[in-house]
Amino acid sequence: MLQTYNYLKEEVLRLVESLYQDQTVDPATIAEQNLEDVVQRLKDETFRIALVAPFSAGKSTLVNGLLGRELLSMDVRAETASITIVKYGERPQIVVHYRDGTMDEYPKTHNEVSTAEMKEYLRGITAVDRRRTNARSGESVEDLVREVVVHWNLGLCRNGVEIIDTPGLFSRYEVHGEITQRILPSVNAVLFLVEPDNVGQAHFQQVIEDRVREAKNSSLDDSGRHIFFIINKIDQHTSEDIQKAYSDLVEVLAPVLPNPQILKVSAYFAMKSRMFLNGDISLEELRRDEKIKFVDHEGYPVAGRGIEAQHVKQLFDMSGFAQLEEALSRYFENKHMYQVESVHETVAAIYRRELASAKDHIALLQIQKAETKQALVEKLREVDNQTEELVSKVRSTVTDVFSDGFTGRGDGGGFVTSLSEWVKQEGQSQAIEGFRRDTQKRWQNRVKGISEGNAEAELREFAKEVDDLIGIYKQELIKNAFATMQKRLVPVSRSLTNHLEYFEDEIQARFSSILAFGSEKTLQFFDPDQLVNEFEKELYGSFSRTISALYGNLSGRVNQSLQENTSYIRKPGFWNWLKSWFGLDEKERHVDLMGFREDVTDLAQQMIDDGENALKGEASEISRRIATFLMALVDEFRRLVTEKISGYHQYRKRLLKKMEENVQQREESIAETVAEYEQKVHHFEDKIALLQKSLATVKEVAVSGFH
Question: Which range (159-168, 299-308, 530-539, 561-570) has the least confidence?
Fold first, then answer.
């Protein structure tokens, strides 16, 4: 996975290393362009994949299939209780992060441990077992562990891939809330894993619809391209069953994701075939595996002793993992290729600046014979004065652009303030209207099946749904605010780049006019595409932080009130009252069922009303904090632009200082200095040509979609 991206990444990093070793390039030019920061962002880029699925859908097997070894336990009795993150490490190690802030490491020293020992330790710390408690506190492992990080020297993870195995779709509310609040906003892709048998189930349909809405709301990419659906265990079902599951899933997702990305896999076949190819298991072990049965290319069933080494490739092909990894790679690489392009552009800009500087030096030295040294020095100082004037002017202009675009001019009427008010007014009204519509529709579907035997369970489930929907509409409020901010970035960025390009052109024009020689324009010191990319990266980061910070404020408020009998007590002992509706007489229970449903509906309506009130309060808090987050975001945008202006200013001052030093040279050394600069010109032109060719390759791959 990610072979193309990583190849291009390594290529551009080699170009960076070559630049650092290039003695003809002034280190100050590199520093002014912030190359180190741009390169670090590329190096730090990770690709985080979250797996979400019902219990027993095969998440652990899917992880093992991606890794090519049996690391996570696949025991169907071992439900995953905690979030497990698999990432690269030079040596195998498991780090357990507890909810109290402490942590454990295994192994604690650099002693070697076997894969079997690591696997057993991992199973013991991540699997639900309500009979066990932790000796340190007496709490169950499920309540104690926040997340487990597995460091392993795996080829896939070496490329920056992190795989997150989450507790099941139907896990308890607190665990689900943690996934929604902390995991989904931080990942690049979400893989929903389903079994063919589950797709048609009514409860599954509702849960998957809510979880997909949460996944969509966790990203500003409203297309849902970061969401993938994996129909697993295709080796255990007929092709007709798989096709029906596919069609049913498309129908289930239609209201929330019209064009879903659905892939069909056998995680078990992928894991076993890769383990054989990696030398972890023998052909004999494959033959003894009763789960491996398939039909070969000629239509003959193959199993047991009939399995030969040449069948393993077919086994992997049948797993569908090649298509899965290709789809993920295509998405990741297309989404993040701009990081590679950004480093390319930055390196090229450094060489272009050095080229223009060398040509300016040559032009100045060549006119020295017609000017006195004093006259040239005075002209250079005049250029410096006018540069200072233009820098001061563009700083003021940038302040005005940010005021007009985002913050207002001191009257409190800026865009961010208006957006915050929208959240509190129109945004809140839209959220409450949608919340009321969804909750009432769900209750109407649920109340039809209410009876003595299931009333308590139905009310508890509905309370969870109410809380889920409060969270979903909170997410949508935040996302709508940031999406509006993202749209605002377009005209503001365009205005900024126009002003910055004019500023650069004006400095160049005055430089040429005062010194009376033609000067090449330093091409795109203020690269508009790079500026927009940096703005959007900050916007996405701020959105993820905001979702994480604001989602969890409400966790389970309605559900908790129901459990504690604090909001819905009609008579002493809520559940006793619920059950007393039926008394002991079978006939009386039958007669009163309709009245019972009406009264329970009143309780459900109270839950809905409480949910609306909670959402109103949350919308006011979101409005206030959105303004704070967005103002901080605008400050970061302003800092990025100011840094670029400062870098350009430093470059011009350094250029003028060097020119003044050259003017003071003795006449007999001028020819030698010109020759040196001419050599640099040829060198820089060669480098730029090489970079243009390399960048063209990167863009060609990006446009082609990585096919």
Answer: 561-570
Tokens of 153: 């020297």
Distance, in Å, from the CA atom of 7 to the CA atom of 10, rounded to the nearest integer, reads: 5
- What pLDDT was estimated at residue 587? 35
Which tokens belong to 360?
Answer: 């300016």
Taking each helix axis from N to C end, the angle separating 428-447 and 455-515, rounded to the nearest 10 degrees, works out to 150
Q: Which long-range contacts (CB under 8 A, 24 or more apart) does 169-178 make?
A: 169/52, 169/53, 169/54, 169/55, 169/207, 169/208, 169/211, 170/54, 170/55, 170/207, 173/464, 173/467, 173/555, 173/556, 173/559, 174/555, 174/556, 175/81, 177/471, 177/551, 177/552, 177/555, 177/556, 178/83
pLDDT of 336 reads 80
Which tens digit of pLDDT belongs to each residue from 204-239? 778 888 888 888 888 888 788 899 999 999 999 999
Q: Are 68 and 275 in contact (CB under 8 A)?
A: yes
Q: How far apart are CA 367 and CA 380, in angstroms?
A: 13
Domains and CATH numbers, the chain: 47-282 (3.40.50.300), 371-664 (no CATH)
Q: DSSP string covering 134-166, please? A: -TTTS--HHHHEEEEEEEE--HHHHTTEEEEEP
- Sequence-ordered list of residues with C-beta below 8 angstroms from that of 484, at least 6 positions apart, any chain: 419, 422
Q: At residue 3, what are phi and psi to the nearest 5 degrees? A: -60, -45
Mean per-residue pLDDT, 286-310: 91
Q: For residue 93, report the phi and psi dihedrals to the nearest 5 degrees.
A: -160, 145
Arithmetic mean of pLDDT, 688-699: 86
Task: Kindly report the length of the chain.
Answer: 707
The DSSP string of 530-586 is HHHHHHHHHHHHHHHHHHHHHHGGGTTHHHHHHHHTSS--SSSSHHHHHHHTT-S-H
pLDDT 10s digits, 122-168: 877 766 553 444 444 555 555 788 888 988 887 778 778 898 888 76
Residues 255-259, mean pLDDT to the nearest whole number: 88
What pairing do the DSSP bridges indicate for beta strands 83-88 and 145-152?
Answer: parallel
Tokens 């741009």 label which residue?
A: 38
User: Cβ(52)–Cβ(190) under 8 Å?
Assistant: yes
* Per-residue CA distances from 474 to 35, 208, 218, 552, 608 (Å): 39, 18, 11, 10, 15
CA distance 216 to 127: 29
Tokens (6 digits) for 332: 């990741």
DSSP conformation class of 405: I
* CA triple 152-156-158, angle to 5 deg: 65
Region 567-585: mean pLDDT is: 43
- Cβ neighbors of 407 (< 8 A, separation 6 or more) are 414, 415, 416, 631, 634
Take residue 274 and report the two structure tokens written for it.
């890769």
List the structure tokens of 575: 């559940």
State how far the Cα of 508 lies from the Cα of 520, in Å rounded to an integer.
8
What CA dihedral angle connects 261, 164, 213 and 192, to 10 degrees?
40
Can you give the pLDDT at residue 26? 92
One-character DSSP codes across 619-678? HHHHHHHHHHHHHHHHHHHHHHHHHHHHHHHHHHHHHHHHHHHHHTS-GGGHHHHHHHHH
